[in-house]
TrEMBL record:
One of its GO terms (biological process) is intracellular protein transmembrane transport. Part of the twin-arginine translocation (Tat) system that transports large folded proteins containing a characteristic twin-arginine motif in their signal peptide across membranes. One of its GO terms (molecular function) is proton motive force dependent protein transmembrane transporter activity. This is Sec-independent protein translocase protein TatC. One of its GO terms (cellular component) is TAT protein transport complex. Belongs to the TatC family. The keyword Oxidoreductase does not apply. HAMAP family: TatC (MF_00902).
Amino acid sequence: MSLEAEEMSVVDHLTELRRRIIYVLVVFVAGLVAGLFVAKPIYLYLIHADMAQGFVLHAFSFWDGIGMYVKIAMAVSLAVSVPFVVYQLWAFISPGLRPVERSAALRYVPYVFVLFILGIAFAYYIVFPMALSFTITITRSMGLEETYGIAQYFSFMFSLVIPLALLFELPLVVMFLTKLRILNPLRLRKMRRYAYFALVFIAVVITPPDFISDFLVTIPLLILYEFSVFLSSFVYRKQLAMDRELEARYVRKEESR
């Protein structure tokens, strides 16, 4: 390939990448606008939930109310955008994939949204109430007077819910990379200790500074990793069987000549 042709290829790829990024930004902005219309009913649901009862939430600045609507709208937009981002990523790299890999990878895209919603549900209904209850117990045991701001309440919630929802995509990412033959179960088992350390570190970072919250987040992340290894093994076995079948077909074709 000539230098000019190679430069054209790089320019074409960068142009394609820019186009995909623009598509993602357009969808994110559209989701943000749509999220503003549903922000109020979501907000009312969240503040009337059981875990929010007993709190008198205050606004400490003129922007707190608007800020809550924007944060909720961004969360809605993220839920809509994540599957679209994955699809755009697939569309960008799909020309370099074989037809079988291309069709298999495309089937993963709808599950991105499902896992994201499952992650939100797990974080909001299980992890968040326990973390909230623990922090409140510590505050009251210290004899402190509780005065909570609406911004602090939702920031605490989103700092738990959003990262966990994104981490729930781990099994799908591992399956996709295994399908591309970038990862395999042998490599995942070999790097298990490093993966565990990284997941524990993530759990400690995204949760309040207490052992209970860290434990409640760490255990599901480790289970997700082991589940990812299992799924990778499943995909890898199918790949090995397909490779043996192709090899046997090639041998039979050579013997028939």
